[in-house]
Design a protein that fits this description.
12-stranded antiparallel beta barrel, mainly beta, about 200 residues
Length: about 200
């Protein structure tokens, strides 16, 4: 696992554009303002691009790479066509399957199970229907939190509603694969739950 995933705080900025089909994000260290990761959807087919501008956007497949600014893959996230509930696969830097997530049926505010390499549940992502506020939890233990509210040192990086903060808690040990899965899940909240 890449060392950058052992941090506990990340600022995520979505690339915005009027006619933007691909989902692209930059991930920053909030203390320094330095870009530490980038999330890119480079291999988007023509048909998928066209569907991204329709009501079928939420059903389209995706294949996203989270990589260092120098281009080294850290995580890859993939989903095929989704007709009803999404199932997303997550791969490490060597394209080895490390787990994924499966959207929960009838969740208010959005939720999915975060799954390990054997597809057993590691935790759940739970959202509130009233806003953009998500927690990764299992048995009352909070592993991470994602929100669009931030008041720390990197506050000046927040210039639009398409930015948010991921905070991983010390309940996840360093180099634990759950850190990779949580980072991957955060990149997919918009595509799986909020589109």
């Amino acid at each position: 696992m890449h060392d950058v995933l052992n941090r506990n705080l990340y600022l995520v900025k979505e690339h915005v554009g009027m006619f933007k089909a691909a989902n692209n994000f930059d991930i920053y260290d909030p203390e320094t303002g330095e870009m530490i990761l980038e999330c890119r959807e480079d291999n988007l087919g023509t048909f998928t691009k066209m569907l991204r501008f329709t009501d079928y956007k939420r059903m389209t497949p995706f294949d996203i790479q989270i990589r260092t600014p120098s281009g080294e893959q850290v995580i890859r996230i993939s989903r095929g066509v989704s007709l009803f509930l999404s199932t997303v696969a997550v791969f490490d830097k060597n394209d080895t399957y490390i787990g994924g997530f499966k959207e929960k049926f009838f969740s208010i505010g959005g939720a999915f199970h975060v799954l390990g390499p054997d597809d057993s549940p590691l935790c759940e992502l739970k959202g509130k229907w009233t806003g953009w506020n998500f927690h990764f939890m299992k048995d009352g233990v909070d592993f991470a939190h994602v929100s669009k509210k931030w008041s720390g040192m990197g506050k000046e990086l927040f210039t639009s509603a398409d930015n948010y903060v991921l905070e991983m808690f010390d309940t996840i040990p360093q180099d634990n694969p759950l850190r990779q899965l949580i980072m991957a899940a955060v990149m997919c909240i918009d595509m799986v739950l909020k589109e």
